[in-house]
């Protein structure tokens, strides 16, 4: 499996003959281009046109994050997998309200199902709050039950929002640390440490999903739950809804319960709290490790990495819009 390169230092990305390298403080580190899937840039990094040309030739996506850890944008190489038929079918499923609603409902069902799975996993493991977690599972079940009754994407989004409120209310019981209270969801800037972790992790998840879409015939600009409008991409947001609970949230619980991140890994910035550079490095290293972890795939009969699960999900979506097989959102088995 190809690897992701994360760059936190300031420096320059350059091309030398048929290879790429990153130079910082007078030292060069060569990049194995044939083994690199994408590059995440968090530092102040200069690139040249020759570098971008070669990166495009090697189908390497480059994602930029600003000083605060917010996603800025991507160098998205010219699509190397093109299919006019797939694009037309994607657009057809967006323009047809019933087809779009059906897909959007499946994304919400998959998202709430994953939230439920996470809460159920911790319900028997928390020191206190088992009753509360069991009650939240009941709430999530209720939101799943009423999904078929929703007749617009806006109504589906409202149900998903209420389900996520119930889900987030379990975090304090799962983490059990006064330094990381949830309180309420806040963004740009996050108002507490836990929200800072959620925002940073979600941003990574959206970007990883975008890289995986690049490896398929699907167009990331055409989403279904998240409207296709003037935003850059939306299909990656749909896909991430299914994977955020198991990629991001479970990683947050792991890092905090293992004390790998503490309150010292956060900085107060312009009215909010953000993850420090050392905290970002820790989070990214553990997330990369988790994405490489393999799980048994019930249909393939073999083990695949968590990151590969995203690609397989996209293949399922593609088969759905082509009319080959009904899409069934992924559900974790643990």
UniProtKB/TrEMBL annotation:
InterPro entries: CRISPR-assoc_Cas1, CRISPR-assoc_Cas1_C, CRISPR-assoc_Cas1_HMARI/TNEAP, CRISPR-assoc_Cas1_N. GO terms for biological process: defense response to virus; maintenance of CRISPR repeat elements. Mn(2+) binds at residues 160, 226, 241. Its EC number is 3.1.-.-. Its cofactor is Mg(2+); Mn(2+). Keywords: Antiviral defense, DNA-binding, Endonuclease, Hydrolase, Magnesium, Manganese, Metal-binding, Nuclease. It comes from the Bacteria. One of its GO terms (molecular function) is metal ion binding. CRISPR (clustered regularly interspaced short palindromic repeat), is an adaptive immune system that provides protection against mobile genetic elements (viruses, transposable elements and conjugative plasmids). CRISPR clusters contain spacers, sequences complementary to antecedent mobile elements, and target invading nucleic acids. CRISPR clusters are transcribed and processed into CRISPR RNA (crRNA). Acts as a dsDNA endonuclease. Involved in the integration of spacer DNA into the CRISPR cassette. Belongs to the CRISPR-associated endonuclease Cas1 family. Homodimer, forms a heterotetramer with a Cas2 homodimer. PANTHER family: CRISPR-ASSOCIATED ENDONUCLEASE CAS1 (PTHR43219). This is CRISPR-associated endonuclease Cas1. It comes from Caldalkalibacillus thermarum (strain TA2.A1).
